[in-house]
User: Fold these one by one.
Assistant:
Number 1:
Amino acid sequence: MATLLKLFPTCTWTGRLAHLSRKGWAQSRSGRLLPCFPASQRCASTTSYLTVEMDDNTGVAVVTMKSPPVNSLSLDFLTEFSISIEKLEMDRKCRGVILTSGLPKVFSAGLDIMEMYGKGPEHCAEFWRAVQEMWLKLYGSNMITIAAVNGSSPAGGCLMAMACDYRIMADNPKYSIGLNETLLGIVAPFWFKDTMMNTIGFRATELALQLGLLHNAPNALRVGLVDELVPEKEVLSAASTAISKWLAIPDHARQITKSMMRKPTIDRLLSHRDQDINNFVSFITKDSIQKSLQVYMERLKQRKT
Ligand SMILES: CCCCC/C=C\C/C=C\CCC/C=C/C(=O)SCCNC(=O)CCNC(=O)[C@H](O)C(C)(C)COP(=O)(O)OP(=O)(O)OC[C@H]1O[C@@H](n2cnc3c(N)ncnc32)[C@H](O)[C@@H]1OP(=O)(O)O
């Protein structure tokens, strides 16, 4: 019991912990010992920015992002996110993840601009490694990943959604999704571009990236950036329905196929990872780029007044 609490310090189990015995342990794919519960039990764990609710009956975990006001991807958020995905990956009961937002109107506002503004090279490098790690974990996941996009999802938020296997978006024309980096005076890195090209094709990506297009929900469906639009209240239930179709496919066949499709893109970043960090740091710390970020943040804040 003590070991269990060490492994999952913030975990609230709805099952009866006292009944765990040595035979209640199972070995994960990586050989780690993990607790194994009877089929009817659910587990919810909450960290600073995420809630992870695992349903042992279905093997599906719902990961809900909750970092007010807009789920921007700070260094701390990204670190927590990658650890949570890694934990689920190692839990052999977990076959699928639904990623959603617990905030109104926003799935994720993308990278936290304040992590890139006025920061020194060391911080920028650490931040960028965390961004890479989030993408590597999600894009390379063996699990089925469904994005339940229940709000706007610009830039890094769009990357997160594109890294999933399937995207369901709330049918609200006020919500938008896309890689809008050029509007901030910055450039989407090659692996953001590759992820989008793998999702919507070369020409649509070329247009979207140069113009920094943020597609509203109907346009996002039209270009294939999302796979389904559903009424806002039904985003999560539609994601559950969609994932059951994916769960019916034998895991090994689906996983090998997924890897075949995604490995070349992942390997490209892995083999240039340090160079990509250096590029980011020298680009983002330029005075002209810092000025662009400042102007963009000021405009964001002015929209309110
Ligand atoms: C050869 C050279 C190649 C070099 C290439 C190498 C490297 C590449 C270099 C750089 C790559 C960087 C890639 C960057 C990716 C990103 O993700 S950048 C982030 C882009 N995000 C956005 O543009 C979204 C901006 N936000 C919004 O549009 C809206 O906030 C919204 C998400 C639609 C939500 O709108 P609303 O509900 O109305 O909320 P508010 O606008 O009022 O926002 C509330 C507060 O949150 C602050 N905020 C919003 N977004 C961010 C953010 N991304 N980061 C930090 N803070 C954010 C906003 O300012 C408000 O703050 P206050 O309440 O006013 O304090």
Number 2:
Amino acid sequence: MILDDLVAATQRRLKKHEAQKSLTELKNEVAHMPAGLKPDFLAVLNEPGLHVISEVKKASPSKGTIVTDFPYLQIAISYDEAGADAISVLTEPDYFNGHLNYLKEISQAVSAPTLRKDFTIDPYMIYEAKANGASIILLIVAIVDDQQLRSYRELAESLGMQAIVEAYTADEVTRALNSGAKIIGINNRNLKDFKVDFQNSLKLRAMVPEGIPVIAESGIKTQADVEVLADAGFNGILMGETLMRSDDKEALIKEFKQAAVK
Ligand SMILES: O=C(O)c1ccccc1NCC(=O)[C@H](O)[C@H](O)COP(=O)(O)O
């Protein structure tokens, strides 16, 4: 199953990273970082409207290579200039062709907060996200236990970051809520078989009580999709492939932001 492969690859990579730089060294690096000046993502999500998180992604397990030309910094800057509320950066190298350096360079170049889009399975990766400029991490409920879900989010918050806690099923939404998640992402993509069902986020939205922002993730393609999600009371959308394939990313983000306020 792909999710198991992704986690196994992450575990192998983690061991290599720890051998190159110890957790103690990484913590020391993070402790000496200057305070960030990025907008507070949770506060932005709590403002009225549907907020756009734009993703920088070269490839994915379901689609293979999405774009061959990948000027990641230029892409991120165009998202930023178009008013993206956050920028998601794939750092997973084996299946998404991502890199931690992309996160670092993009975080330095844009004013929007950045999300380390990866498969967080260890505190080391949370310090690594911080060291490379992320304001937000992703916690996928399906790959951590309840104790990790709570403690990883709390660690991220203690480092001045926020966590999007991602669920795909009703049971996972319940686990996310019970862990004290402050931001919930509902994925339309089943990470076990790649199937994308746009109705999934619409179906589960009502489980999340008022006051906790909810982001719809994956498979969002059209203005009509955005309007439906805005009407359903989502606070944010995460878009990757549609933007990556667009020749005019700035115009598309502006259109989607417009559609969100109609
Ligand atoms: O995209 C995949 O193939 C995939 C497979 C297994 C785990 C995660 C995967 N994608 C990560 C994401 O969730 C998306 O990058 C993100 O939600 C944006 O989705 P999209 O707009 O459909 O590119």
